[in-house]
Amino acid sequence: MNDLIVVKDDEKERYKEYEELLLRRDQLERDAGSYLTIYTKEFGDMITANFELKVECIKKKKTIAYCRRRMNRDLPIDAHHMQEEIDQEMKLYYVQLQDMIKDAEAAKNSQSVGEYEARLAKKIYRRLAKRLHPDINRKTMKNETLRELWERIRKAYDKYDADELADLEALVKKALEELGEKGFKIDFDNIEDRIERIERQINDILSTEPYTYGELLEDKDRKKAHKSMLEEEHMDYERYLEMLQKTLDDMLSEKGVKLIWKMN
Predict the structure, then answer these.
(1) What stretch of H or E contains 113?
(2) What is the pTM of this model?
């Protein structure tokens, strides 16, 4: 009988550890998102400008390849057809560029949250996560009301919106009461596997971007070096673009062709 009690107590401790790991993983994901926003606010314009130059270099290379193919076959260069063909091939790059521009603008317009609001939001989120987190309460993803509430909780937590989280806590309490759920039946199945899985996820977050941006952002020397690296990269792309343009001009001049490229 005593052995049985020890086992149950141990299981409860392991489940408590599992809950804490879930909450830590969610907090680390939240921190990673914050680091990404700050990083984008700090370096987004430079990164976007570099990518824009990279896109122009790719476009120029495709222009050279198109003209070379036509010239090798003694075919005329149809500038309109060339532009249509290259624009089609460049669509994905244009989409990526627009996304980067939007992300940079969103980061600039993002507002920082006060320390008190952030602490309060974390406190409320921890309470809600212990009741509604899909890995803890299996009903969350099966019940439409609970699922929608959980999505709203995640979005509010992403913004550290303590007021919204407080409102949602009342709605969660009401929804759970209507389902007749005063407490939870703790499922101890595969608890060791669950703990191992969450620990792997935590290690992945800690060792990869954007979480690792945190160390960069807190170090003035590293930030300065990173900015210098991006500036050097920009100059490299400018030099490469000039070289490509010269290659195109020289190639076309041999055939007496003048090509006017329309920038997007």
Answers:
(1) none
(2) 0.79
Q: Which residues contact residue 264 at a Cβ distance below 8 angstroms, ignoring those fewer than 6 apart?
A: 87, 94
Query: What angle, 0 to 180 degrees and rounded to 10, lies between the N-to-C axes of helices 2-72 and 79-89?
Result: 170
Q: Indicate whether 125 belongs to any domain.
A: no
CB-CB neighbours of 74 under 10 Å: 7
For the chain, the domain total comes to 1
CA distance 86 to 82: 6
Give the pLDDT confidence of 134-151 residue by residue, as tens digits.
Answer: 988 888 999 999 999 999
97: which residues sit within 8 A by CB, 6+ positions away?
48, 51, 52, 55
Do the Cβ atoms of 152 and 168 come closer than 8 Å? yes
Q: What does the alpha-carbon distance between residue 12 and residue 6 come to, in Å, rounded to a whole number? A: 10
- Does 8 fall in a domain? yes
The dihedral through the CA atoms of 100, 102, 106, 108 has a sign that is: positive
Domain that holds residue 29: 2-112+194-254
Lowest mean pLDDT among 127-141, 149-163, 246-260: 246-260
Determine, yes or no, domain membership for 139. Answer: no
For residue 119, is it within any domain?
no
